[in-house]
Amino acid sequence: MAFALPLLVWWGYKEVESQFVQPQAVLVLGGSTKYMEREKFTADFARKHPDLPIWISGGSPPRYTQKVFAKAGIDTNRLHMDYEAVDTVTNFTTLVDDLQARGIKSVYLITSDFHMRRARIIGEIVLGSRGINFKAVPVPSEKSSEPIEKSFRDGARAIFWVATGYTGADEPKHRVDALK
């Protein structure tokens, strides 16, 4: 119990802190289905937050993603598309330094609801290692949450990345700076 109490206090602090910090960007984790739920949800979300840049890590092919945002009336110059990630851990590790370099201290984190627990754990570790907070914005789905083992495994990988700079994943894909 002595170990759990500091962890619970820290987690509670992070929850309260996230309520007071105004996000400066949107971070979308790719990997949605052929129906592009995450991209469509984010395009609707972006209409309500017209001044925020949108960072998309992985996901659908660039031209399809651009089409979703253009159809929603979102200026595609707001999009920063990154295809270096090969999994959820690298969704964060491939972008965190770019976000930090741009002075971004807080983001809206968008991913599917069934994937959010794992994304939150990794985000707390990777984004937190650079002083970046986030507000979780889950995309509704009808899927049940992922097994907790995935969260533990990827949380450990995120800690390993903070300590060593290595994620344990295959080599990353390529980056696409969309429409620059």
Q: Got a strand count?
A: 6
- The portion of residues assigned to helices is 40-55%
Note the gap between the termini: 52 Å
What strand line-up does the widest sheet have?
5-4-1-2-3-6
What is the general shape?
globular
Discrete helix count: 7
The proportion of residues in beta strands is 15-25%
Q: How does the helix and strand content classify structurally?
A: alpha/beta
Radius of gyration equals 16 Å
Major beta sheet summary: 6 strands, mixed
What is the chain-wise order of helices and strands? HEHEHEHHEHEHE
Low-confidence sequence ranges: none
Q: Mean pLDDT across all residues, rounded?
A: 88
Characteristics:
single chain; 180 residues; alpha/beta; 6-stranded mixed β-sheet; 44% helix
